[in-house]
Amino acid sequence: MMRRAIKRISIITLQGYYNYGNRLQNYALQEVIKNFSEEVETLILPKASVQSSETFNKIKKVFSYTLSQTLNSINNKINSYINKSIIDQRENKFKQFAQKYINEKHINSFDELRKIAKDTDYFVVGSDQVWHPYNMDQYYSLQFVEEEKRIAYAPSFGISEIPEDVKPQYKEWLSSIPYISVREKEGAKIIKQLTGRDAPVLVDPTLLLTKDEWLKISKVHAYKPSSKYLISYFWGKIPTERKTLIKQIAKKYNLEIVSIADLKDKKTYIADPSEFIDYIDSASLVLTDSYHGTIFSILMETPFFVFERTGGKSMYSRIETLLELTELSGREEKDIDLNKDILNIDFSHVKGILEKEREKSFDFLSNAMKIEKNK
């Protein structure tokens, strides 16, 4: 598809072995960038090596947790301690997925990173919420490398407005990236306000791969039900009325409820990213507040409804952008009508939309890397 004239490209993204979306978007971005270079790696740098600057501490202080978020954080730590064994099992399975499918390069310090930068042609930061005020720093703004090597592919701010006190630092960092794109319309507004630039809104890397490409790395989880089921995949709290609705839907369609990423369902909790893909593909319905839960429902052409997350700051703009793009805005919680057939959804128009978005993303990357398409 492309002429490969680039020696090495490094990916900078959020790190961790617990989130399906993070691991799958990392894999997808890697596979796409392989069209431009034979050597593509994701750099893994210890947090302590990055987040030590005065600016980072200032940003973190400005974007401090609310009381409810602090209590949630404490509760999560308690749950982590109580369920350490099962959490460790899940993390190990995620690490095994990464070892098999993602070319990770672990580095020990910022100084080592600068040395690597000399032999790397381009650094691509994205996607995920790498520019959220709680993450943003010199690392995720690519300040360790020459400007001409900096590319931002569809990163997210995770919020709709940057705290006033740190806008000057954001403006300086973002202005120094010559090729910059974002994942949501809200992100494009932030870029415009801070730098005066028009940043293209590009799709999450996971949408750049087709269903068939994803199914090649999927696998069946040992505890996957043999009967029909619906997926309940929520990162936020599930209010009582929502739980009641899920049970009503399951009863009406005679579906087993499979809870993904829920510690109460320990067998399913340890499913790895490959098994997550198959779970979504085989489900009769997906009910979720997850961005990537929604994405993979669309990719697998599995009926779904998306809910606004409760119990924290809203990040719904990214889902609104996704639903508007794919012309599937009628699949929100408010659209659920148990008097209608909610398992019937037309995905026939989505393929053409995604093909155009993939072409737009490839054009952005090829321009950023100064590579011409083959005639």
What does this structure look like?
With 375 residues, the protein is α/β, with parallel strands linked by helices. It folds into two domains: 6-208 and 354-368, Rossmann fold (3-Layer(aba) Sandwich), CATH 3.40.50; 211-344, Rossmann fold. It is 42% helix and 11% strand. The protein is built from 15 helices and ten strands. It has helices at residues 20-33, 47-50, 54-62, 67-82, 84-101, 110-118, 167-175, 185-195, 211-215, 240-252, 266-269, 273-282, 291-299, 317-325, 350-368, and strands at residues 6-12, 37-44, 104-106, 122-125, 150-152, 179-180, 229-233, 256-259, 285-288, 304-306. The strands form two sheets. It has a six-stranded parallel sheet with strand order 3-2-1-4-5-6, covered by helices on one side. A four-stranded parallel sheet has the order 8-7-9-10, with helices on both faces. The mean pLDDT is 90.
Structural class per helix/strand content?
alpha/beta
Return the domain count.
2
Low-pLDDT runs of 5+ residues are none
Helix content bin: 40-55%
Tally of DSSP β-strands: 10
Beta-strand proportion: 5-15%
DSSP summary: helix tally: 15
Briefly note the CATH topology name of the largest domain. Answer: Rossmann fold
- Summarize the biggest pleated sheet: 6 strands, parallel
CATH architecture of the largest domain: 3-Layer(aba) Sandwich
Distance between the termini: 10 Å
Mean pLDDT: 90
Global shape: globular
Which CATH class of the largest domain applies here?
Alpha Beta
Could you tell me the radius of gyration in angstroms?
Answer: 21 Å
Strand order of the largest sheet: 3-2-1-4-5-6
Question: What sequence of helices (H) and strands (E) makes up the elements?
Answer: EHEHHHHEHEEHEHHEHEHHEHEHH
